[in-house]
Amino acid sequence: MKKLLIILHDLSAGGAEKMMARLASALVDAGNDVTLLMLTGGGLHATHLDPRVKKVELRSLRTARAVPALTRFLRANRFDAQLAALTHVNVVAIVAAWLSGTLARLHVSERNAFSHDKHVNPDLMVRLAYRVAPLLYRLIPNPVICVSRGVAQDLVNTTIARRQDVTIADNPVLDDDFRDKLPGPPSHPWLLEKSSPVLVAVGRLAPQKGFDTLIAALAALADPNVRLIIFGEGALRDRLLEQARRLDVADRVDLPGYTPDPMAEVAAASCFVLSSRFEGSPNVLVEALSTGTPVVSTRCPHGPQDILIGGLVAPLVAVDDPIALARAIDLQLSIPRDLQRQSRIDAAARFMNASAVETYLAALLPRPSP
User: Fold this and answer.
1) For residues 272 and 308, is the Cβ–Cβ distance under 8 A?
2) CA nearest to 287, candidates 332, 342, 349
3) Element of type H or E holding 118
4) Across the chain, which distance is largest between two alpha carbons, in Å?
5) Residues near 25 by Cβ (< 8 Å), separated by ≥ 6?
6) Which of 16, 43, 248, 314 could bridge 12 with an S-S bond, Cβ 3.0-4.6 Å?
7) Model pTM?
8) What's the mean per-residue pLDDT of the chain?
9) Residue 121's pLDDT is what?
10) In angstroms, rounded to a whole number, what is the distance separating the alpha carbons of residues 258 and 318?
11) What are the structural domains of the chain?
12) What is d(CA 259, CA 263) in angstroms, rounded to the nearest whole number?
């Protein structure tokens, strides 16, 4: 049994936080002693953490201020491997690991396209973290664990990181028995009584997710009765609703906010759409594939092209092209829903917990050379 530590800022509603909670649980299933440490604490996914995972909250007011407390914790507790996730957390973890003498056991993880993600958060300390992270990544003894080949290549192409400074591990998106589980019933009335085709999208209402392109694509569809539901919260809600009114599709667009079981909604949809401008490895796309529902995605950097095997599993279209997106959606709505259903489910199976954990353990606990 290996003693493993995962370091996060908190367990808020983001995809990275959800995946780290899932990874912690999957590592416990694989027979390891796992502690999940939060620099601040709390968050939506805290209640879903496996009870066998030990939970530590440093309760720092800000991530950047957690260095002293994290240093003391690392000195007092010995782990076989330590894994940090998200760039600003990585920087804090590297400093604390260096001060505590545990840098050789520290691994850090990039969850998104670095060259795009660094422009998203305006916070001064976060921007500073993005400036210093590539230098630290070159100096630390273990390669950065990236969630996809695209994320790894982006880090090499756009920073001073070298190819030997990165490695890849898949996200643990799905339970190992996901094929045997029936989806729950949807909660949205448009899906409970589907009188016309319904598109579903899931994600933060933020520029990254490209929902403005998706609403424009809805207005360009051949069938004027198709409806669109976007599940998620975010700052762009009012702007997206105003766009829907301007395009005369407001009665066919609904933004109901957060849903506790988005895949129940996706499973009942006519088509799932990922309209993102960039991603790391979009977990929601894998989850959508696992339901067997038809899928359309942008060919955004990074992840969809790999997950959808270059478009063999589902259509890939250019980013920010609502006409191309509309045509791909029209095509999916015009063919039998179950066509290629099994290939979609098979493509998702790569991201089962057991498979993903093996890639993480190989990165965290590399075998010594003979």
Assistant:
1) no
2) 349
3) none
4) 67
5) 49, 50, 52, 53, 353
6) 43
7) 0.88
8) 94
9) 79
10) 27
11) 3-172+352-364 (3.40.50.2000), 178-350 (3.40.50.2000)
12) 9
